[in-house]
Amino acid sequence: MRTLNATQVIDTVAKMCIDSNRYLPADVRQRFAECAAREESPAAKEVFRQLTENYELAEETGLPLCQDTGLAVFFVEMGEDLRIEGMNIREAINEGVRKGYADGFLRKSACDPLTRANTKDNTPAIIHFDIVPGDRLKIAFMAKGGGSENMSRVTMLSPAQGWAGIKKFVIERVAEAGPNPCPPTVVGIGVGGTFDYSPILAKKALLRKLDDVNPDPKLAAMEDELLEALNKLGIGPMGLGGKTTCLGVKIAMSPCHIASLPLAVNIQCHSSRHQEVEI
Amino acid sequence: MAEYNLKTPLTDEAMGKLKAGDVVRLTGTIYTARDAAHKRLIDLLDKAEPLPFDLKGSVIYYVGPSPAPPGRPIGAAGPTTSYRMDTYAPRLHSLGCKASVGKGKRSDAVKQALKDHTAVYFGATGGAGALLSKCITAAKVIAFDELGPEAIRELTVVDFPLLVINDSYGGELYVQPDRKAAGLE
Fold it and tell me: What is the secondary structure of B123-167 as a DSSP string?
């Protein structure tokens, strides 16, 4: 049994919160450059120019990339031979969020759903745990903005609707969202599971790198097909028209009930901020 | 598409010249308000109490900035999605507000209010919070401090880069999605 002090979890999480909000991942930067080169419209090119200047400036000044520094979302894989000493793991992660959002001058966006009173420290974080073999702790963090989250949807399709129904729902969702979620977006799709599980699959899919290839060739082909269709919508960067409505489509799938075809579409803005650390 | 350098307060004459797609660099004083602050403003109007700032000729920026680090007037300060303010915007325009700044689509009621009151809806680049912060030279909370990021702030801006999304003639810059090309129809 390996023992890890909770302070190490706290400090790691705090740093992840700050760094993710300050440094745009390399794969996203790369995709900006590729898409900007393909755009013909001056307005679309100008948006990419501003977004590039923005991530350079964030890195230089230490300001967050976006004022919406998100709700703190975590996917945690905890080895069954690992024990956290000094604090419960959930509490340690929340403590790390408190520290990171305070020390990094990040916006605290968590509030009571009805009174709208701000919790003032961006907790509670949304944490998904998984127990895995071994003695390591793997923490994936995502700063999830509200504007793109609001454009996300879950639906229970009928099994007869199949892939055609999935495709139609996703395209319609992105079309309807239009300029609202800060396109070009990344679209995370969860297919299968249950009503509650498909959105978790969709969110987890957003943690993948933009330039990775789905190991399942069937899913990889579906991702390509959807990305091509979504970019034909012509919504473009910030809704001003252009070839880049989406930067990427990531699909995760899981078996479901014989009566169901759950589908979740989780939209992520162009400021796709996430990071993974193993302790 | 024309380019303009405008100073606050904004006038009917200046707004009447603007067309969807025009580029505006705005200098002067603007006010931040998003969801919770709008609700408070409307509550004050309902009670016939004075507002924390003069609506006449005003510009309302839909933003909840991140905290100011030492040595800076404000943190990242890009626009939030505007539709959530659609229920409040027409009343504010009817009382003299000349422009809002945000990102994303507006309702038909807001577009009608822009026509009725010679006002415009500006878009700023969403997710460019660090970049836009550069154009804000001063910031102070003037109302509802307890709302934290949602408090109303008075901002001094210099050459703040804006695009006219909806003008006062019914013109709109956002493109309609091509559902047919994407295989929906």
Answer: E--TT-HHHHHTTEEEEEEEE-GGGGGGSEEEEEEEEEEEEEEE-
